Amino acid sequence: MTEISSMVITHSKATVEEMEEVWDGDLEYILRELYANELVCECAVLKTCNRIEIYVVSPKGSSVLFQFVKKMGLSSNIFDFFDHEESIMHLLRLSCGLESMIIGEDQILGQIKDLYQIAKNLGTTGKMLDTAFSKAIQVGKRVRTETGINRGALSIASASVDLAEDTVGDLKNKMVLVIGTGEMGTLVTRALSHRDIELMYIANRTYATAKELADEMGGHAVHFDQINENLKKADVIISATGAPHFVLRHEQVLEAMDSREKELLLIDIANPRDIDPSIADIPHVTLYNIDNLRVINEKNLEHRLDEAKKAQVIIDEEYDLLIKQYKRQRADHLISEMYAQLYQVRSQEKERALNKLSAYHTIGKVENRIIDDLTHSIVNKIIAEPTKVIRNAAQVGDDEMLDMVSRLFDIQKKTEKIKIKGEPIPCSRNLE
After folding, report:
1. Is residue 380 part of a domain?
2. Which string of b and e fits 103-142 if b means at least 16 CB within 10 Å?
3. Which residues are annotated as a binding site?
4. Which residue from 154, 164, 197, 325 has the least number of CB within 10 angstroms?
5. 240, 271, 294 — which closes off a domain?
6. Tens digit of pLDDT for each residue in 72-111?
7. Is the pLDDT of residue 154 over 80?
8. Which segments are annotated as binding site for substrate?
9. Can you give the pTM of this predicted structure?
């Protein structure tokens, strides 16, 4: 039976280094690679700074994902593999912020929306994943409306600012440099703007973007080629770019430290990392990355356990509704295919009967309508009871009965993916 399977790599098992090794970040390439597999009917990928998740709809999802892991040559110790129901529950919890490093954070919901939309735009999703992701987004919104799970919630961006304060103390008289003006960099800047801080500098490869953000947040824009000068003066640097390479190299920081006396704190919340990890070996330099934010999460979790319990009640309720929805969809698909087959036979036999009768009599509109009504009624009466049986089987989870109907009417065969001239044709968007 074709269902959802997923492979999940998160901060709970994998380090930043291990997540960086999974692939180079080309999301569309990975989606196309997965979708080209004849066994994959649908697929979607979620990639954030501290998680990589792959969802496939396939009759052999676990095999497909295992081969993917094997191809990457990574240790299976950092992966979790989920079956259909586990994948659905995980996705619902993820959208509500319960699986995030910072419990209850809001950013993950927007990331799910954006990453799902990429897969949808590429045409790699279908009815099953569309149903799951739509439900996840709806549940994520509901939990944030009906509970306080995100009230005062930290994000990785704000947690990095908290980590800076825990390390160097009050930031009021410190110079803080933020590198990057993307989503994460903007969140860092916003978190800093809410603190009592006077010297905030923002650097970006596009100076105009840095200046626009600096003007909005009360900071000062820095040309990217001036970072070396600011390295000599900054107390704290938080880097959050989307660059595929290091933006701070060992020799840069080493040269800067030769001309300064005070300590330097570097916090890297980018994935892939912005800051060369060897910089941590330079005297008087402290380098933190996403792994160090786990401590912040533990403090956050203590205050959110009650709200997390409320959120889980809602998730359980919505999970049951989603499973029932899938069952109805599977039954409706089988019934629709059965009707289509029987009505095709009905149409063919009706035409054959009319041709035979017309050899002896002139067949008018009345006779034609009577025969049409007769064959229509016969088909509906024949299929009425099987329809009830199929819907009841779906409702009680009798997969054996549904599989038998599928084989009996040769419906499973119609959902397989075939290839024409090397191009994959997607499976029917159904739940078989």
Report:
1. no
2. bbbbbbbebbeebbebbeeeebbbbbbbbbbebbbebbeb
3. 48-51, 100, 105-107, 111, 180-185
4. 325
5. 294
6. 777 778 889 999 999 999 999 999 999 988 788 888 999 9
7. no
8. 48-51, 100, 105-107, 111
9. 0.69
